[in-house]
Please model this.
Amino acid sequence: MIRRTVVLLVSSAWLVGGALEPPRTDTHWPGWRGPTRDGVSTATDLPLEWGSEEDHDNVLWKVALPGRGHSSPVVWGERIFLTTDIEGDVIPGAEAPVHIRAGEVYRHPATQSADRAHTLQVLGLDALTGRTLWSHTVHDGRVFDNRHRVNTYATPTAVTDGDLVFFYFGSQGLYAFDFEGNPKWDVDFGDIATWGHGHGTSPLLHGELLILQIDQNEGDGSFLIALDKRTGTTRWRTPRNERVNYSSPILVEGDGGSQIVTTSYENVIGYDATTGKQLWRSPGFLGNGVPTAVASDTMIFAVSGYPDKVTKAIRIPTGSSSDAVPAVWEYRKGTGYTPSPILYRGYLYLVSDKGILTCIEPETGTVVYEGGRIPVATFVRASPVAWDDKILLSGEDGDFFIIQAGPKHAVLGASSIEERVIASPAIASGRLFLRGEKHLYAIGTR
Model:
């Protein structure tokens, strides 16, 4: 087990004065994929184009970020929360653990970085100016395992209830802070084996519960856990023999109450949110479920982009539990390795690795259109967001494309911030927050 050194780095006090008065009521983007965990915002009047510099009319501010991270901005009113990893020097003798897969030693050719020191930080920023209000170092030194070269040690997105904010770093721990930057509690889950690829799952809040999906290698030691958000104590913990996965759980309403839905390499599974009891299982997924599922009032849509491209539609089960819930329909192309789908105003949109959109009628699986292309070749790793009949796609090269939502594909706008983008956007208080490799941007109409 790695011992942590916790260091406080308070860069400045909180701003004082009047509270932010945003131009509309959608002032929060409290966690991964926003208020409803599906990338959808109620915002209107966001700009259709922007640039990379602050002299552009629609770039409200641009601030440099330390280190590297793929966590999305989390916004609550006038506060933004982020995580980052500052990679240091090689540590003599430090190395990743040996992973055994199918009885043989496994090491992915793109795995790296366990031999270096890592400073993991949590940040609180002012949403009006981008100024860093406080910063904590929660881990400083060795890490347990390697990560994929594209991944970071600061990839899971934080989540907040407006009082506390929760930051997850996989094997390097879970940390709770208040809005003033005071540490409240932390939990060490021990060494979490992920084939040396790193972590990707983001925590989920449900009432007083903070829920995490923690899957490992071939499934030995995987579990779903609910913590008391005030204290960090375990409320329930459910073992699950599920191969390592990088998606995040979602919440749906089913017969008898709230359910937590997870995707893994082989199964889509529903759990009782109050007790953690498994309610149902839909087998046969057979893919790296990196994208986060989305759901309507009646259906769940789980997606994988590798090795098979598959979208599986499952009606939210009612009645007694089952280990063999069938899919209503399946569609076997059009998905990407990491971008999550988006369900918006009556249509389900799939995003391929190259940013090609597929539009589907969610209840029937009928394809409305395929091959919705963007004008510039790019690779898409971020998940889309939607507002005001528009869908935003983020290209890894820093290119952004606004697509008309609905049955006819059309590109309404294109912009670039000219730096690498893997983190998914956030929308709050009439602004679009974009995290690039080196900067955080606030986009809006002046």
In short: The radius of gyration is 21 Å. Residues 1-25 have pLDDT under 50 and may be disordered.
